[in-house]
Specification:
By secondary structure, this protein is an alpha/beta fold. The protein folds into three domains: 103 residues, no CATH class; 230 residues, P-loop containing nucleotide triphosphate hydrolases (Rossmann fold), CATH 3.40.50.300; 68 residues. Helix content is 40%, strand content 10%.
Length: 449
């Protein structure tokens, strides 16, 4: 580079480090032109070798044109002088870059003064939702690799099926072995709110709080034992389980055992079926984000005991932590850890459930709420119904005598039905609040159970 060009740009090689400079660092020098605009402060220190490369590269760019847009390009250029240069070092440019210490910033560099330039704006970062919990290893990479290798040697696959299966295994290898065992940071406040909204489930909430406290204190992934909620119809046992998934911030799956006839819903269907698909546990854990989804075993007391496939038979394995940690999906034929899953079973009575299955649950008897609890439940149902309808900002929540009347209706299920009907009558009357006249005696009547 000629002296004339250096004088033209007022930029020379980086100065040697002085006693006032950090050891091994030098400042990026200003470029002053006749127009008086420059690149900012000289208190931006970078490693000495890096400063020499940046200063020289900026001088070349500025010397090629008087256009200020060229100078703007010089200000935002990549700060790696070795990126495009051939290297005589056998180790390559990567080794040279790794030897450079990190930048030392005393001040943020000022923006160039003068007219705005056409420099491109920095790319906007994608908003990422925070994920709370602890990582747990749920699927060994070696098992996935072996499965991928077996696919290539099996002749029962067509070329398209083989390619799709191998691509699925590649995606699993790329995602890694670990998943999140979810637990929100404000779990204590969330559980307190759940207990306030559903006071007749207080004993269940206390058990969950204890499990969360142990996980936080021991810094281990959360483990909640299988829970069985037994009580009369309409006390919102299923609704409580769904609320629990919101508290933990994880996925959920409702398994209606009353209508289930096979075990494929949880563990997948056998490969000999043409429509074989993975089970929900594999989908939620391996293909999903969280290792502890809430699985609702709804109406477990009404499962078909006489079915040839006995859907409840699969529960013995998944409810036992030791066997669940090595669960194999029948469709994908891969073992994974399903021991972190939160199982919540519901039942109206316990007499029809096999004793070997009952022994795997912690059983809680849920009773009808008393008068005081009924008011709290009615208030919570009112908020929830309006939120579900997305009108909580435009329609008044039940209060006063209306709230008292809702509490007298009975079970939470009936309260929810009565409130929905009353909201419709209020809207037809041109009101955005429910009045006593909107609640009719027959609202919420479900007939005999």
């Amino acid at each position: 580079m000629t002296d004339a060009r250096l004088r033209r740009t007022s930029l020379g090689p980086a100065k040697s480090a002085t006693a006032a400079d950090p050891p091994g660092f030098a400042p990026l020098l200003c470029i002053d032109t006749t127009n008086g605009w420059h690149n900012g402060s000289t208190t931006l220190y970078v490693p000495l070798a890096l400063a020499e490369g940046i200063n020289a590269a900026r001088a070349v760019l500025h010397g090629q044109s008087e256009d200020r847009r060229v100078w703007a390009r010089a200000c935002v250029m990549r700060t790696s002088p070795f990126e495009d240069e051939p290297s005589d070092d056998p180790a390559g440019s990567d080794a040279r870059q790794e030897a450079i210490p990190p930048l030392s910033l005393q001040n943020r560099p000022a923006q160039p003064s003068g007219p705005p330039t056409s420099a491109a704006a920095p790319a906007r970062k994608r908003k990422r939702h925070p994920v709370h919990g602890r990582h747990a290893r749920v699927i060994p990479a070696a098992a996935v690799a072996q499965r991928r290798q077996r696919i290539g040697t099996q002749f029962k696959y067509t070329a398209a099926e083989r390619k799709a299966e191998q691509q699925a295994m590649d995606e699993l290898l790329e995602r890694g072995e670990h998943r999140i065992v979810g637990l929100k940071q404000d779990w204590l406040q969330r559980l307190a709110r759940l207990r306030s909204d559903m006071p007749n489930f207080s004993s269940v909430v206390e058990r969950i709080q204890a499990a969360c406290a142990v996980a936080v204190f021991s810094r281990t992934p959360l483990r909640i034992p299988p829970l069985l909620l037994a009580g009369p119809p309409g006390v919102d046992k299923t609704h409580f389980a769904l609320r629990l998934s919101d508290v933990l911030g994880v996925g959920r799956f409702v398994y209606p055992l009353e209508s289930a006839e096979t075990v494929s819903a949880l563990q997948g269907s056998d490969k000999h079926w043409s429509n074989s698909e993975p089970g929900e546990l594999y989908r939620q854990i391996v293909q999903g984000t969280y290792a502890n989804p809430v699985v609702v075993l709804d109406e477990i007391d009404k499962a078909h005991a006489g079915s040839n496939y006995k859907p409840v038979s699969a529960l013995h394995a998944v409810l036992e932590p030791l066997t669940a940690s090595q669960l194999r999906d029948k469709s994908v034929d891969i073992e994974f850890d399903a021991s972190f899953v939160v199982y919540v079973a519901t039942a109206n009575r316990l007499s029809t459930i096999d004793s070997s299955l009952l022994s795997r649950f912690e059983i809680f008897l849920i009773e009808e709420p008393d008068a005081r609890a009924a008011v709290s439940i009615a208030r919570a149902i009112g908020r929830q119904v309006l939120a579900d309808l997305k009108v909580d900002k435009r329609f008044a929540a039940p209060a006063g005598e209306v709230l008292q009347q809702l509490a007298l209706i009975g079970s939470p299920r009936r309260v929810r039905k009565a409130l929905l009907a009353a909201i419709g009558r209020a809207l037809l009357a041109g009101r955005r609040r429910v009045e006593l006249g909107d609640l009719l005696p027959e609202d919420g009547d479900e007939g005999p159970h």
